[in-house]
Amino acid sequence: MSDKLTHLDHQGHAHMVDVSDKDITKRTATAQAILLMQPATLKKVIEGGLPKGDVLATARIAGIQAAKKTSDLIPLCHPLMLTKVTVDINVISDCELEVLCTCSLSGKTGVEMEALTGASIAALTLYDMCKAVDKGIVIQNVSLLEKKGGKSGDWSKGNA
């Protein structure tokens, strides 16, 4: 790991990193977000009993769309041609959902920000669609779980 901030030039000004000389490699990243909610809310999510419709399908689509739009949202991110985005939503307890977003491509820069954006927006969509019945929903632990490929190699949260 480098201790240098790559998005700052020698004068400390923000700039978009030049990746034109980097090799094209397969790159994958997975990020998560955890939602805490009332058990009754989670039951409605699972059973499809919320007034706004299919919460899980809408959140998946929102996460995929967000991953594709990351460079429009985060100023110094490169626009990427993602080849795959998946958003999985898992029940991990009677009051917790886990959102996992995995992004892949063959390219010159990583997809960590796309995975983090996808997981975050899917979680925010879940919140939006459930807030009518539970305003106390908490989104937490938005984090990168792993990345593969590129010059810096593979990284996993469990091995950090």
UniProtKB/TrEMBL annotation:
SUPFAM superfamilies: Molybdenum cofactor biosynthesis protein C, MoaC (SSF55040). InterPro entries: MoaC, MoaC_bact/euk, MoaC_sf, MoCo_biosynth_MoaA/MoaC, Mopterin_CF_biosynth-C_dom. It catalyses: (8S)-3',8-cyclo-7,8-dihydroguanosine 5'-triphosphate = cyclic pyranopterin phosphate + diphosphate. Substrate binds at residues 76-78, 113-114. Pathway: Cofactor biosynthesis; molybdopterin biosynthesis. The active site is at residue 128. GO terms for biological process: Mo-molybdopterin cofactor biosynthetic process. CDD domains: MoaC_PE. The keyword Lyase applies. Its EC number is 4.6.1.17. GO terms for molecular function: cyclic pyranopterin monophosphate synthase activity. The keyword Oxidoreductase does not apply. Belongs to the MoaC family. Homohexamer; trimer of dimers. Catalyzes the conversion of (8S)-3',8-cyclo-7,8-dihydroguanosine 5'-triphosphate to cyclic pyranopterin monophosphate (cPMP). This is Cyclic pyranopterin monophosphate synthase. It comes from Marinomonas polaris DSM 16579. The lineage of its organism: Bacteria, Pseudomonadati, Pseudomonadota, Gammaproteobacteria, Oceanospirillales. The gene is moaC.
